[in-house]
Automatic annotation (TrEMBL), chain A:
Annotated InterPro entries: ABC_transp_permease
Alphabetical list of Pfam families matching this protein: BPD_transp_2
Keywords recorded for this protein, A-Z: Cell membrane, Membrane, Transmembrane, Transmembrane helix
Membrane topology, from the record: Multi-pass membrane protein
Molecular-function annotations in GO: transmembrane transporter activity
The species this protein was found in: Marinobacter lutaoensis
Protein's name according to its UniProt entry: ABC transporter permease
Biological classification of the source: Bacteria, Pseudomonadati, Pseudomonadota, Gammaproteobacteria, Pseudomonadales
Sequence similarity: Belongs to the binding-protein-dependent transport system permease family. AraH/RbsC subfamily.
Gene Ontology cellular-component annotations: plasma membrane
Membrane found in the keyword field: yes
TrEMBL record, chain B:
Keywords: ATP-binding, Cell membrane, Membrane, Nucleotide-binding, Transport
GO cellular component, one term: plasma membrane
One Pfam family cited in the UniProt record for this chain: ABC_tran
One term of GO molecular function: ATP binding
Organism, as annotated: Marinobacter lutaoensis
Keyword Repressor: no
Name used for this protein in its record: ABC transporter ATP-binding protein
Ranges that cross the membrane: none
InterPro entries reported for this sequence: AAA+_ATPase (IPR003593), ABC_transporter-like_ATP-bd (IPR003439), ABC_transporter-like_CS (IPR017871), ABC_transporter_ATP-bind (IPR050166), P-loop_NTPase (IPR027417)
Membrane topology category: Peripheral membrane protein
Record's subcellular location: Cell membrane
Gene3D superfamilies noted in UniProt: P-loop containing nucleotide triphosphate hydrolases
Domain ABC transporter, residue spans: 2-249
Origin: domain of life: Bacteria
UniProt lineage: Bacteria, Pseudomonadati, Pseudomonadota, Gammaproteobacteria, Pseudomonadales
């Protein structure tokens, strides 16, 4: 069985990946823009926050700077696509590759330790909660605030224009929506959230590392698709809740798989498990629909 | 008022597929006019409409809407003045958004959009009123996804969306062509009603000569990227399809071989 610490650990990482899933929801679902920049903007957020923190900046300001850095990275990808007409997927790969160098430059070395620094988590340890519960509480609050703001935004005039841009760009233009500007704003917002996730991840893990972004896109997508399979995303709020549910369930599933001795899985099997889970998440809704279809047909 | 002068546009210039779509197209539509545009396949009807809307940029020529030169402006910057209904009923609306969200997008056509809620309470009554004029029962389905509606219903809503805010010109691109005959008749009737009631200036492309003569106040025929004739008023009254064909042959000294024009 899962130990209490492992359980809270999975919740903590799940909440952080919930933010990543929000970002991927905006790019993949709202804008229909397959964006791989996140593999670079996640460590970028971590690097920026870590460097500012070790230079004595307030950890919240450092985290805010990480969000801005992520937004800038997203804007670069979107501009490559909108202005230079580079295919969206390729544009994001270019930015992602470039960010590997940028992240090394930002940190000046492959990793930066934060173990002894004051982070956004530090003041919360005085609340009297157990050590492993503190990050879960704080990150749950951050995710809740992000969810409410995003929900509000998607219902606003600009948010609706962004949703129209992804769903039907020709119609959006005919309604006077600058679709190019919407793509830039949306992809920037998406990567800003991923930058935030990276910054929080570095602070909870006690280090920023240049390789920590590898596979973030796959985990984010796994969370998004898994969440959508569990919570039918028929409205914006349900889609956002699906992101968080998917991310947490995904981390819990991974933790269970690694902890179940009968399966004999080890940490190095993580990526294999991820691939299997993503495949299941993609295939299962179809299976469920066909099963439900057969059942209802029998009834009729 | 909208005026196009000597529009020229060639697709695939310098390639074996070079296709001159507009070859000196000129047309002025006055305030309150309802012009029907006909022409065979490849006459340049859709390209002309796309050029007016800003979806394609002309190589040369000038487009003026309400005394402003919009020739080089992209679609979204013309949207305040130019409203549009597409041929494909799925193209004019967003199927993933609700009916009220689609209408909320249209009510802000060409205006600044902010961070306030898109579907405002004060809009809802107006949405319900407009929708009830369609007599499709949609006024009680504001929260339904657009994708649940039929093609005809969606086209009717598209038309409503195009007329929700004032425009200098309403472009209708064969907007009944993809519908079954009964629904097409309904949408056409609705079009005439809306244009008449709101005194809109409109340009309607159609594939049917009969429709072109029955609807509107003026008929323009395009051929090979130019206007071949332009009739209105007394001259147009009582004109029949065969008269149009005669006019065309007389103008061009050639026979119409496009059956769809005759059959339509």
């Amino acid at each position: 069985m899962l130990s209490e610490i492992a359980f809270y650990g999975a919740l903590e990482t799940g909440l952080i990946y919930g933010l990543v899933a929000f970002g991927i929801y905006i790019s993949f679902r709202v804008l229909d823009f397959p964006d791989l920049t996140v593999d670079g903007s996640f460590p970028l957020g971590a690097a920026v926050a870590a460097m500012l923190i070790i230079h004595g900046w307030n950890p919240w300001i450092a985290t805010g700077a990480a969000v801005l850095a992520g937004m800038a990275a997203g804007a670069v990808t979107a501009l490559l696509n909108v202005k230079l007409k580079i295919l969206n997927l390729l544009a994001s790969i270019l930015t992602m590759i470039a960010l590997y160098s940028v992240n090394l430059r930002v940190m000046g070395r492959p990793n930066v330790a934060l173990l002894t620094e004051e982070t956004v988590l530090t003041p919360w340890y005085d609340l009297g909660l157990a050590f492993h519960q503190v990050p879960v509480l704080l990150f749950a609050l951050v995710v809740l605030v992000a969810l409410l703001l995003l929900w509000r935004f998607m219902k606003s005039e600009v948010g609706l224009a962004m949703r129209a841009t992804g769903a039907n760009p020709r119609m959006a233009r005919a309604q006077g929506i600058a679709t190019g500007a919407m793509i830039v704003l949306g992809v920037a917002l998406s990567n800003g959230l991923v930058g935030l996730a990276g910054a929080l991840f570095a602070q909870s893990q006690g280090a920023a590392d240049v390789t920590m972004g590898v596979g973030v896109i796959v985990i984010g997508l796994a969370s998004l698709i898994g969440g959508e399979a569990l919570v039918t995303p028929s409205s914006v709020i349900r889609a956002l809740i699906a992101c968080v549910v998917g991310a947490i369930i995904y981390r819990l599933a991974i933790a269970f798989a690694l902890n179940a001795d009968v399966l004999g899985l080890q940490a190095q099997d993580l990526n294999l498990i991820t691939a299997v889970l993503v495949t299941l998440a993609i295939v299962l809704p179809g299976v469920r629909n066909s099963v439900v279809g057969k059942l209802t047909r029998k009834k009729a | 008022m909208i005026s196009a002068t000597d529009l020229r546009l060639t697709f695939g210039k310098g390639t074996p597929l070079e296709n001159p779509a507009l070859r000196g197209m000129s047309l002025t539509v006055n305030q309150g006019e309802f012009v029907t545009v006909i022409g065979s396949n490849g006459a340049g009807k859709s390209t002309f409409l796309n050029a007016l809307a800003g979806e394609v940029m002309v190589d040369s020529g000038q487009i003026i809407v309400d005394n402003q030169d919009v020739t080089r402006l992209p679609t979204h910057k013309r949207a305040a003045r130019v409203a549009r209904v597409f041929q494909d009923p799925l193209a004019g609306t967003c199927e993933n958004l609700t009916i009220e969200e689609n209408l909320a997008l249209a009510i802000k056509r060409g205006q600044r959009r902010g961070l306030s809620g898109a579907v405002k309470k004060q809009y809802l009554e107006r949405f319900r009123d407009s929708l009830s004029s369609l007599k499709l029962g949609l006024e009680n389905r504001l929260g339904d996804k657009m994708g649940l509606l039929s093609g005809g219903q969606r086209q009717a809503v598209s038309l409503l969306m195009a007329s929700l805010t004032p425009s200098s010109i309403l472009l209708l691109d064969e907007h009944t062509a993809a519908l079954d005959p009964k629904t097409a008749a309904f949408v056409l009737e609705l079009t005439q009603k809306i244009i008449e009631e709101q005194k809109l200036t409109a340009l309607m492309v159609t594939h049917s000569m009969k429709q072109a003569l029955e609807v509107g106040s003026r008929t323009v025929m395009l051929h090979q990227g130019q206007v071949v004739f332009d009739i209105a008023g007394k001259e147009r009254e009582g004109l029949e399809v065969k008269d149009l064909l005669g006019l065309f042959e007389q103008q061009r000294g050639l026979k119409v071989d496009d059956d769809s024009l005759l059959l339509g």
